[in-house]
Amino acid sequence: MKIWGAGTGRTLRPIWVAEELGLEYEFAPIGPRTGETQSESYTQMTRKQKVPFLVDGDVRLSESVAISRYLIANYPHEAVWAPKTPIEVAKEDEWTCYIYGELDETSLYVMRRHGDLAAIYGGSAEIVQSAKAYAERHLGIIAHYLEGQSHVMPQGFGLADILLVSCLDWARFYGVCVPESLLTYRNNIAARPAYRKAMQINFKEFENLEQIMGG
Ligand SMILES: N[C@@H](CCC(=O)N[C@@H](CS)C(=O)NCC(=O)O)C(=O)O
Q1: pTM for the predicted model, two decimal places
Q2: Among 26, 92, 114, 167, which is disulfide-ready with 127 (CB 3.0 to 4.6 Å)?
Q3: Closest ligand 1 atom to the C-alpha of 62?
Q4: What's the CA-to-centroid distance between 153 and ligand 1, angstroms?
Q5: How many Cβ atoms are within 10 Å of 78's Cβ, its own excluded?
Q6: What is the pLDDT of residues 109-151, one digit of tens each?
Q7: What CATH number matches the domain at 2-74, 3.40.1170.20, 3.30.310.50, 3.40.640.10, 3.40.30.10?
Q8: Ligand 1 — pocket residues by CB below 6 A?
């Protein structure tokens, strides 16, 4: 098994899953926009030229959610809850799609595109501000849903938590206002050894890592 990609909230997810499941894997810590995703050999594996990417025997997968879901389903482990019935799958999907769609892509990545990556996608303070407000609205909805619950799925720690915590860290990094109750939720999950190990692996170059992990 080999996992490509380091340095972003998206690359963290499959590494975190692999650590939770106790998998052995080779790691290629290539970063976005370093030229490494544009190499001929990488492009042959994935024309998307994006990280993360997984090869597991004959299986080749892009997309952080798809990779994480595949690993959890294919290498079941008591550390990570996996949905089994159609309703469990749908309920988990309801939250993973929501967190990925509304927080990751529609809010945080939009802030990145028109903030940090302004040289490529065009800068706009107005769009960044609007995406931040949008994130805050949906964080409020998630905080309300999570009242009295320690995990997104009542059955226990799973894929939706990995997605949510990776988005909460990203949101805090971008100065998005995260409700206190979500910070408590996040800090409980961030105490997991697999999270802490995955953060060290994924953000090796990052100077303020302890600050981010500490909450
Ligand atoms: N939907 C994809 C997004 C992957 C993605 O956009 N990765 C970024 C890094 S966070 C990347 O590789 N960017 C390089 C590029 O666009 O050239 C996922 O969740 O894996």
Answers
A1: 0.96
A2: 114
A3: 20
A4: 26
A5: 7
A6: 999 999 999 999 999 999 999 999 999 999 999 999 999 999 9
A7: 3.40.30.10
A8: 8, 10, 32-33, 37, 49-52, 63-64
